Amino acid sequence: MDSQPQVVNSIEFTDLTQPQLEDRRRRRSNTQQDKESVSNMRIRRRAQNRASQRAFRERKEKHVQHLEHELEELEAKHQNLSRSYTDLDSTHAKLKMEVKQLRSELESVKSSREGSVNENPQSNSNFFDPFSSDGNFYGSGTEVRF
């Protein structure tokens, strides 16, 4: 067998975090300029937060006003519909009473007519009865169907 040289792949581990930590430490100097920079960043951030809160409160107030306006409109519509319903309900009740009255009048006319027909059948032979069940237009004379 051939003997080939054996190649070993080795990976060298290098710690890359160490220089970064040193860079951060160097950057964190306590100079007056750095302190002012941090202070200015905090001031700007606080001002930005106050502006954001103010804008949020304004949007919220505007939304609440819109909802209150919409509520007023819906309440007015509800009152109009309620009034309309009450009016229609009273009209319906009046019409029901009128129908009931007309039906009772019709029944009394029918019963009086039947009584007079039974007394004198010849006198009512040409009487038109639109509610008769036989469908004749004329009494016992010429027959016309609808």
Describe, in plain words, how this protein is organized in 3D.
It is elongated, with a radius of gyration of 51 Å. The model has no long low-confidence stretch (mean pLDDT 78). It is an all-alpha fold and 146 residues long. The protein is 68% helix and 0% strand. It contains two helices and no strands. It has helices at residues 17-27, 32-119.
Distance between the termini: 122 Å
Q: Overall 3D geometry?
A: elongated
User: What is the N-to-C order of secondary-structure elements (H for helix, E for strand)?
Assistant: HH
Q: Whole-number average pLDDT?
A: 78
Quaternary structure: single chain
Query: How many extended strands?
Result: 0
Number of helices: 2
Cα-atom radius of gyration: 51 Å
* Main beta sheet: none
**Class computed from helices, strands and strand pairing:** mainly alpha
Q: Helical proportion?
A: 55-70%
Relative strand content? under 5%
Low-confidence stretches: none
Subcellular location: Nucleus
Pfam families: bZIP_1
Family: Belongs to the bZIP family.
Domain BZIP: 39-102
Short structural summary:
The protein contains two helices and no strands. By secondary structure, the protein is mainly alpha-helical.
Q: Layout of helices and strands, plus pairs?
A:
Elements lengths: L16 H11 L4 H88 L27
Comma- or semicolon-separated keywords:
mainly alpha
